[in-house]
Structure formats: C-alpha cells, structure tokens
Design goal:
Layout: E1 2-9, E2 27-29, E3 35-37, H1 44-51, E4 56-63, H2 65-77, E5 83-86, E6 93-95
C-alpha cells in the first residue's frame, strides 16, 4: 500500500464526471456536480457539506497499487485537469 495526496480544484472542475467511473470508490460528484474525494470513514453527506464552499479539497489516501492506478486514470480522464496528484512525503507533483 502506498500513499498519494489527491487534490481537486473545485474552481476548475466543470462537473463533466468522466473521472467518476475510473475511481468510483474514491471520486463522486456532489449536488453541484463538482468532484469530491471520498475519505474512508467519513459520511458522504457530511463530506459534501465540508467541501461545499472550499476552492480545493486535499486528501491523503492509503491505496493499493490497483487503487493508485484508478486514481491516475481518473485524473487523466479529467478534460479540464482539475485533479492533481502529489507524493505526500516529498510534495512532488506526480500529475499533471
């Protein structure tokens, strides 16, 4: 298992939703059709309220290799490049 810091820029996000099928366990659209990163152990509706007025949502996720691949596919699928991926230990931007 590895860790990735996943960031959604909610200003850039246009709610197209092509990211969701790539990583449905971790990315959903809220009622405003903005991408939200699901955090394990957090209630989805509560999370929607927390990120409602935020410009960015940042979450460090512990992922299997397959889940990491899903997250990268989701970020790559975003036509407006609103999903960023970082190494949480070094801060290095891994995508885009």
């Amino acid at each position: 298992m590895g860790k990735l810091k996943v960031v959604v820029d909610r200003n850039l996000c246009e709610g197209i939703g092509v990211c969701v099928p790539e990583a449905p366990k971790y990315i959903v659209l809220d009622k405003r059709h903005k991408a939200v990163i699901l955090e394990p152990g957090k209630d989805k509706e509560q999370l929607f309220q927390e990120v409602l007025e935020k410009k960015r949502q940042e979450v460090v996720l512990e992922l299997t290799i397959e889940e990491e691949e899903d997250i990268f596919r989701a970020a790559e699928a975003c036509p407006v490049k609103a999903i960023f991926i970082y190494d949480p230990e070094t801060g290095e931007q891994l995508y885009p």
